[in-house]
Amino acid sequence: MTVRPSARPGVLYVVPTPIGNLADMVPRALSILQTADIIAAEDTRHSGKLMQHFQISTPMVAYHDFSSEQRCQELLQRLESGQNVALISDAGTPLISDPGYRLVALARQRGIEVIPVPGACAAIAALSASGLPSDRFTFEGFPPAKSGARKECFTQQRENPRTLIFYESPHRIAASLGDMVEVFGPDRRLVMAREISKTFETFLSGTTASVLARVCADANQQKGEIVLLVEGFRPVVEQDGPGGEARRVMQILLDAELSVKQAAALAASITGDKKNRLYDWAVSQRAV
């Protein structure tokens, strides 16, 4: 490969592509793909259809997680010679469970400017419409393929208070949801977003157990691109004292001249509050 020397390095652009609807392609991304010197694509055959649709004739080379060190160095040499390189994946934002980390890291180490272009990302799109807390979240990408390792992955996140985001493949979705029920419990809130920005976009919301049941009952829910969002851990916080209704019942029983022990036992059976907590509350009130 022959490149012309330049006093100034080129720019590595990280360019998102649509995850479904082609209308999601942002104008800035189109402009960069049209004017870059070369496009580094995860799969040139797959991306060729996108380029043809948007009439982009910029030459492409393959670059993915299994690319050789030589290919990475070729791209870096182009950048250092002054050429602009646009990095794309098959769909969505590169590096988000897609190739590109190695190239971006090496470019920054060499002082080459790296510019991200905001655009489509399945994880963020799913989170924005999930109804789960979005102020703090943990993106875990694809969980391990084997059940044992997958359960261990979930176990490590079981008490994470942030919303958890996973990608999952359609042929493993039922098994993965089953492991979530086992590890997170059947009542943890979960949202499954499927085929975002595509014709059959679907959001299933409920508990881990209820979503698993719906997926197992409908083979169509075991197809396409899937994002799983799990509500963060919420510890049960016990009240310092009994609730208002329990206190009211307790007071009535005490006014009827029952002993504290008798009143606490009867009030617990009526209200469902804890007998020990009712007893302690009554003793503290008498001490005041």
Describe this structure in words.
There is one protein chain. This protein has 288 residues and is α/β, with parallel strands linked by helices. It has three domains: 11-116, Tetrapyrrole methylase, N-terminal domain (Cobalt-precorrin-4 Transmethylase, domain 1, 3-Layer(aba) Sandwich); 122-230, Tetrapyrrole methylase, C-terminal domain (Methyltransferase, Cobalt-precorrin-4 Transmethylase, Domain 2, 2-Layer Sandwich), CATH 3.30.950.10; 244-287. Helix content is 41%, strand content 16%. The strands form two sheets. It has a five-stranded parallel beta sheet with strand order 3-2-4-1-5, covered by helices on one side. The chain has a five-stranded mixed beta sheet with strand order 6-7-10-8-9, with helices on both faces. The longest helix has 13 residues, at 275-287. The mean pLDDT is 91.
| Helical fraction | 40-55%
At the fourth level of CATH, the homologous superfamily of the largest domain is Tetrapyrrole methylase, C-terminal domain
N-to-C span: 88 Å
Give the count of helical stretches. Answer: 11
Across the major sheet, the strand order is: 3-2-4-1-5
Instruction: Describe the sheet with the most strands.
Output: 5 strands, parallel
Q: What is the string of helix and strand elements?
A: EHEHEHEHEHEHEHEEHEHHH
Q: How many domains?
A: 3
CATH classification class of the largest domain = Alpha Beta
User: Strand percentage, roughly?
Assistant: 15-25%
The overall pLDDT average reads 91
CATH architecture of the largest domain: 2-Layer Sandwich
Category by helix and strand content:
alpha/beta
CATH topology of the largest domain: Methyltransferase, Cobalt-precorrin-4 Transmethylase, Domain 2
Shape: elongated
Low-pLDDT stretches are none
- Per DSSP E runs of 2 or more residues, the count of β-strands stands at 10
| Rg for CA atoms | 28 Å
